[in-house]
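Next comes the chain:
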Amino acid sequence: MTLRIGVIGAGTHGARYLRHASQDVPGLEPVVLCRRDREQAETLAKEWSCRFEHDAEAVIHDPEVDALIVCTPPSSHFALARAVLAAGKPLLLEKPMTGTFAEAVALQELDSQGFAPPLMVSQTLRWNPVVQKAKELWPSLGRVHMVRLAQRLAPTQLAWQRDLAQSVGGSVLLTGVHMFDMVRFLTGREIVTVDSRQRHIQNPVTEDHFLTRTVMDDGCWCTFEVSKYTQSRACWLEAVGEEGQLLADYMFGGIRLLRGPSWQEIPADASAPTLPPVLTAWEASVREGTVPPVTVYDGLQTLAVVEACYRSHREGREITLSELKT
Protein backbone atom coordinates (compact mmCIF):
# COMPACT_ATOMS: atom_id res chain seq x y z
CA MET A 1 0.00 0.00 0.00
CA THR A 2 1.31 3.43 -0.94
CA LEU A 3 1.89 5.99 1.81
CA ARG A 4 0.64 9.30 0.47
CA ILE A 5 2.65 12.23 1.81
CA GLY A 6 2.38 15.98 1.97
CA VAL A 7 5.49 18.17 2.13
CA ILE A 8 5.18 21.47 3.99
CA GLY A 9 8.07 23.77 3.22
CA ALA A 10 9.06 22.74 -0.30
CA GLY A 11 12.03 25.08 -0.59
CA THR A 12 15.61 24.06 -1.31
CA HIS A 13 15.68 21.22 1.20
CA GLY A 14 12.02 20.28 0.93
CA ALA A 15 12.47 19.81 -2.81
CA ARG A 16 15.11 17.16 -2.05
CA TYR A 17 12.57 15.26 0.03
CA LEU A 18 10.12 15.40 -2.88
CA ARG A 19 12.73 14.09 -5.31
CA HIS A 20 13.93 11.22 -3.15
CA ALA A 21 10.44 10.25 -2.01
CA SER A 22 9.33 10.13 -5.64
CA GLN A 23 12.37 8.37 -7.10
CA ASP A 24 14.20 6.40 -4.42
CA VAL A 25 11.78 5.07 -1.80
CA PRO A 26 9.19 2.56 -3.03
CA GLY A 27 5.92 2.94 -1.19
CA LEU A 28 6.05 6.72 -0.81
CA GLU A 29 4.03 9.00 -3.05
CA PRO A 30 4.08 12.80 -2.69
CA VAL A 31 0.54 14.02 -3.40
CA VAL A 32 0.66 17.67 -2.27
CA LEU A 33 3.26 20.30 -1.42
CA CYS A 34 3.11 23.64 0.35
CA ARG A 35 5.45 26.56 -0.39
CA ARG A 36 5.17 30.34 0.08
CA ASP A 37 6.39 31.20 -3.43
CA ARG A 38 3.41 30.25 -5.57
CA GLU A 39 5.18 30.33 -8.94
CA GLN A 40 8.03 28.08 -7.79
CA ALA A 41 5.59 25.83 -5.95
CA GLU A 42 3.49 25.30 -9.06
CA THR A 43 6.60 24.49 -11.09
CA LEU A 44 7.73 21.98 -8.47
CA ALA A 45 4.28 20.41 -8.25
CA LYS A 46 4.23 19.93 -11.99
CA GLU A 47 7.71 18.38 -11.93
CA TRP A 48 6.70 15.75 -9.36
CA SER A 49 3.09 15.26 -10.49
CA CYS A 50 1.51 16.43 -7.27
CA ARG A 51 -0.79 19.24 -6.17
CA PHE A 52 0.12 22.66 -4.79
CA GLU A 53 -1.58 24.00 -1.68
CA HIS A 54 -0.77 27.42 -0.22
CA ASP A 55 -2.21 26.73 3.24
CA ALA A 56 -0.32 24.36 5.56
CA GLU A 57 -3.42 23.55 7.62
CA ALA A 58 -5.19 22.41 4.47
CA VAL A 59 -2.32 20.03 3.73
CA ILE A 60 -2.38 18.63 7.27
CA HIS A 61 -6.12 17.94 7.14
CA ASP A 62 -6.23 16.79 3.51
CA PRO A 63 -7.97 13.37 3.49
CA GLU A 64 -5.66 12.25 0.68
CA VAL A 65 -2.57 12.81 2.84
CA ASP A 66 -1.56 9.87 5.06
CA ALA A 67 1.64 11.36 6.53
CA LEU A 68 3.57 14.62 6.48
CA ILE A 69 7.09 15.98 6.13
CA VAL A 70 7.81 19.45 7.54
CA CYS A 71 10.86 21.36 6.21
CA THR A 72 9.98 24.92 7.18
CA PRO A 73 12.18 27.36 9.17
CA PRO A 74 12.48 26.46 12.88
CA SER A 75 10.12 29.20 14.11
CA SER A 76 7.15 27.28 12.66
CA HIS A 77 8.13 23.74 13.68
CA PHE A 78 6.29 23.56 16.99
CA ALA A 79 2.95 24.89 15.72
CA LEU A 80 3.02 22.65 12.66
CA ALA A 81 4.09 19.57 14.63
CA ARG A 82 1.34 20.19 17.18
CA ALA A 83 -1.23 20.44 14.38
CA VAL A 84 -0.03 17.21 12.75
CA LEU A 85 -0.12 15.34 16.07
CA ALA A 86 -3.63 16.66 16.69
CA ALA A 87 -4.65 15.39 13.24
CA GLY A 88 -3.35 11.94 14.15
CA LYS A 89 -0.90 11.67 11.26
CA PRO A 90 2.73 10.49 11.20
CA LEU A 91 5.30 13.26 10.89
CA LEU A 92 8.91 13.48 9.73
CA LEU A 93 10.16 16.79 11.13
CA GLU A 94 13.35 18.45 9.94
CA LYS A 95 15.97 19.38 12.50
CA PRO A 96 16.10 21.34 14.69
CA MET A 97 12.97 19.74 16.10
CA THR A 98 11.77 23.11 17.42
CA GLY A 99 13.11 26.62 17.58
CA THR A 100 13.44 26.69 21.36
CA PHE A 101 14.00 24.35 24.29
CA ALA A 102 10.65 25.38 25.83
CA GLU A 103 8.86 24.31 22.64
CA ALA A 104 10.77 21.02 22.66
CA VAL A 105 9.55 20.35 26.21
CA ALA A 106 5.97 21.10 25.17
CA LEU A 107 6.23 18.85 22.11
CA GLN A 108 7.64 16.03 24.23
CA GLU A 109 4.59 16.32 26.49
CA LEU A 110 2.22 16.14 23.52
CA ASP A 111 4.06 13.23 21.93
CA SER A 112 4.13 11.26 25.19
CA GLN A 113 0.33 11.30 25.40
CA GLY A 114 0.26 8.70 22.64
CA PHE A 115 -2.77 10.10 20.81
CA ALA A 116 -0.97 10.16 17.46
CA PRO A 117 1.63 8.09 15.60
CA PRO A 118 5.16 8.81 16.89
CA LEU A 119 7.03 11.75 15.42
CA MET A 120 10.46 11.21 13.86
CA VAL A 121 13.12 13.93 13.83
CA SER A 122 15.18 14.00 10.63
CA GLN A 123 18.71 13.97 12.04
CA THR A 124 20.14 13.05 8.67
CA LEU A 125 23.82 12.77 9.66
CA ARG A 126 23.07 9.52 11.49
CA TRP A 127 22.71 8.01 8.01
CA ASN A 128 25.89 9.50 6.58
CA PRO A 129 27.94 6.44 5.45
CA VAL A 130 31.10 7.71 7.17
CA VAL A 131 29.25 8.25 10.45
CA GLN A 132 27.68 4.81 10.13
CA LYS A 133 31.12 3.26 9.65
CA ALA A 134 32.51 5.25 12.59
CA LYS A 135 29.69 3.88 14.74
CA GLU A 136 30.67 0.35 13.70
CA LEU A 137 34.35 0.99 14.55
CA TRP A 138 33.71 2.84 17.82
CA PRO A 139 34.03 -0.18 20.18
CA SER A 140 37.53 -0.88 18.83
CA LEU A 141 38.75 2.41 20.33
CA GLY A 142 38.27 1.25 23.90
CA ARG A 143 37.07 3.83 26.37
CA VAL A 144 36.90 7.18 24.57
CA HIS A 145 37.98 10.24 26.56
CA MET A 146 38.03 12.88 23.80
CA VAL A 147 35.80 13.63 20.80
CA ARG A 148 36.19 16.57 18.44
CA LEU A 149 33.67 17.61 15.79
CA ALA A 150 34.06 20.50 13.34
CA GLN A 151 32.04 21.81 10.40
CA ARG A 152 33.40 24.60 8.22
CA LEU A 153 30.93 25.95 5.66
CA ALA A 154 30.32 28.88 3.32
CA PRO A 155 28.12 31.77 4.49
CA THR A 156 24.43 31.08 4.15
CA GLN A 157 22.66 32.18 0.98
CA LEU A 158 19.21 31.58 2.47
CA ALA A 159 17.37 34.77 3.37
CA TRP A 160 15.47 33.17 6.25
CA GLN A 161 18.77 32.32 7.99
CA ARG A 162 19.43 36.05 8.26
CA ASP A 163 15.99 36.68 9.75
CA LEU A 164 15.92 35.87 13.46
CA ALA A 165 12.12 35.75 13.49
CA GLN A 166 12.28 32.71 11.20
CA SER A 167 15.59 31.07 12.12
CA VAL A 168 15.26 31.70 15.90
CA GLY A 169 19.01 31.06 16.26
CA GLY A 170 22.17 30.81 14.23
CA SER A 171 24.84 28.15 13.76
CA VAL A 172 24.37 26.64 17.23
CA LEU A 173 20.72 25.87 16.48
CA LEU A 174 20.87 25.23 12.76
CA THR A 175 24.16 23.33 12.45
CA GLY A 176 25.19 22.46 15.99
CA VAL A 177 22.18 20.17 16.40
CA HIS A 178 23.70 17.87 13.77
CA MET A 179 26.84 17.42 15.85
CA PHE A 180 25.19 17.33 19.28
CA ASP A 181 22.96 14.51 18.06
CA MET A 182 25.86 12.74 16.35
CA VAL A 183 27.94 12.50 19.52
CA ARG A 184 24.92 11.04 21.36
CA PHE A 185 24.45 8.55 18.51
CA LEU A 186 28.11 7.50 18.43
CA THR A 187 28.73 7.26 22.17
CA GLY A 188 25.33 6.30 23.56
CA ARG A 189 25.96 8.87 26.31
CA GLU A 190 24.42 12.21 27.30
CA ILE A 191 26.00 15.65 27.55
CA VAL A 192 25.86 17.01 31.11
CA THR A 193 27.82 20.31 31.04
CA VAL A 194 28.31 22.95 28.34
CA ASP A 195 30.70 25.88 27.93
CA SER A 196 30.14 27.84 24.71
CA ARG A 197 31.36 31.02 23.00
CA GLN A 198 29.93 32.49 19.82
CA ARG A 199 30.77 35.20 17.27
CA HIS A 200 29.31 37.07 14.29
CA ILE A 201 31.82 37.02 11.41
CA GLN A 202 29.78 37.62 8.25
CA ASN A 203 26.20 37.16 9.46
CA PRO A 204 25.22 40.29 11.40
CA VAL A 205 21.98 38.77 12.69
CA THR A 206 22.91 35.36 14.09
CA GLU A 207 26.14 33.68 15.14
CA ASP A 208 28.10 32.06 12.31
CA HIS A 209 31.04 30.91 14.44
CA PHE A 210 30.95 29.00 17.70
CA LEU A 211 33.18 26.85 19.86
CA THR A 212 31.63 24.65 22.53
CA ARG A 213 33.23 22.35 25.10
CA THR A 214 31.08 19.71 26.78
CA VAL A 215 31.47 16.87 29.25
CA MET A 216 29.51 13.62 28.81
CA ASP A 217 27.98 11.64 31.64
CA ASP A 218 30.93 9.21 31.53
CA GLY A 219 33.49 12.03 31.80
CA CYS A 220 34.38 12.15 28.09
CA TRP A 221 35.30 15.64 26.83
CA CYS A 222 33.74 16.74 23.52
CA THR A 223 34.43 19.89 21.55
CA PHE A 224 32.24 21.28 18.76
CA GLU A 225 33.16 23.97 16.26
CA VAL A 226 31.19 25.54 13.45
CA SER A 227 32.75 28.14 11.14
CA LYS A 228 30.08 29.23 8.68
CA TYR A 229 31.96 32.11 7.06
CA THR A 230 34.67 30.51 4.91
CA GLN A 231 34.72 29.91 1.16
CA SER A 232 35.54 26.26 1.76
CA ARG A 233 33.91 23.18 3.22
CA ALA A 234 35.00 20.54 5.75
CA CYS A 235 33.39 18.17 8.23
CA TRP A 236 35.72 16.39 10.68
CA LEU A 237 35.26 13.82 13.41
CA GLU A 238 38.08 12.78 15.73
CA ALA A 239 37.86 10.36 18.65
CA VAL A 240 40.68 9.38 21.03
CA GLY A 241 40.23 6.17 22.98
CA GLU A 242 42.46 4.06 25.21
CA GLU A 243 42.90 1.46 22.45
CA GLY A 244 43.19 3.74 19.43
CA GLN A 245 42.18 6.85 17.53
CA LEU A 246 39.73 7.53 14.73
CA LEU A 247 39.89 10.38 12.22
CA ALA A 248 36.93 10.71 9.85
CA ASP A 249 36.00 13.08 7.04
CA TYR A 250 32.23 12.92 6.76
CA MET A 251 32.03 15.46 3.96
CA PHE A 252 34.48 14.04 1.41
CA GLY A 253 34.84 10.52 2.81
CA GLY A 254 37.46 8.33 4.38
CA ILE A 255 38.41 7.14 7.85
CA ARG A 256 41.87 6.69 9.35
CA LEU A 257 42.06 4.24 12.27
CA LEU A 258 45.21 4.39 14.42
CA ARG A 259 46.12 1.43 16.62
CA GLY A 260 49.53 1.08 18.27
CA PRO A 261 52.35 2.21 15.94
CA SER A 262 50.32 1.69 12.77
CA TRP A 263 47.33 3.18 11.04
CA GLN A 264 44.76 1.89 8.58
CA GLU A 265 42.89 3.72 5.83
CA ILE A 266 39.28 2.55 5.82
CA PRO A 267 37.18 3.36 2.74
CA ALA A 268 33.99 5.24 3.58
CA ASP A 269 32.15 7.12 0.83
CA ALA A 270 30.39 10.25 2.07
CA SER A 271 28.80 11.04 -1.29
CA ALA A 272 25.71 8.86 -0.89
CA PRO A 273 22.65 11.02 -0.12
CA THR A 274 21.25 10.56 3.38
CA LEU A 275 17.59 11.33 2.64
CA PRO A 276 16.69 7.98 0.98
CA PRO A 277 17.67 5.92 4.07
CA VAL A 278 16.03 8.51 6.35
CA LEU A 279 12.79 8.27 4.39
CA THR A 280 13.04 4.47 4.28
CA ALA A 281 13.48 4.29 8.06
CA TRP A 282 10.55 6.65 8.62
CA GLU A 283 8.30 4.77 6.20
CA ALA A 284 9.12 1.47 7.91
CA SER A 285 8.35 2.84 11.38
CA VAL A 286 5.02 4.23 10.14
CA ARG A 287 3.96 0.98 8.48
CA GLU A 288 5.13 -1.29 11.30
CA GLY A 289 4.03 0.97 14.13
CA THR A 290 7.50 0.86 15.71
CA VAL A 291 9.42 3.54 17.59
CA PRO A 292 11.20 5.76 15.04
CA PRO A 293 15.01 5.74 15.08
CA VAL A 294 15.15 9.43 16.13
CA THR A 295 12.47 10.27 18.67
CA VAL A 296 11.07 13.44 20.20
CA TYR A 297 13.17 12.63 23.27
CA ASP A 298 16.29 12.74 21.07
CA GLY A 299 15.16 16.10 19.74
CA LEU A 300 14.56 17.36 23.28
CA GLN A 301 18.05 16.34 24.42
CA THR A 302 19.59 18.13 21.47
CA LEU A 303 17.60 21.32 22.11
CA ALA A 304 18.68 21.20 25.75
CA VAL A 305 22.32 21.41 24.59
CA VAL A 306 21.41 24.31 22.29
CA GLU A 307 19.73 26.15 25.18
CA ALA A 308 22.76 25.54 27.39
CA CYS A 309 25.08 26.88 24.66
CA TYR A 310 23.18 30.14 24.36
CA ARG A 311 22.90 30.54 28.13
CA SER A 312 26.60 29.76 28.59
CA HIS A 313 27.54 32.44 26.05
CA ARG A 314 25.24 35.04 27.61
CA GLU A 315 26.39 34.37 31.16
CA GLY A 316 30.05 33.63 30.37
CA ARG A 317 30.14 30.40 32.37
CA GLU A 318 29.73 26.65 32.18
CA ILE A 319 26.13 25.48 32.29
CA THR A 320 24.99 22.17 33.75
CA LEU A 321 22.04 20.77 31.83
CA SER A 322 20.32 19.91 35.09
CA GLU A 323 19.93 23.69 35.58
CA LEU A 324 17.47 23.85 32.68
CA LYS A 325 13.85 23.85 33.73
CA THR A 326 11.81 21.16 32.06
Observations:
- The mean pLDDT is 95.
- The CA atoms of residues 65 and 96 lie 24 Å apart.
- Residues 296-315 form the longest helix (20 residues).
- DSSP finds eleven helices and 15 strands in the chain.
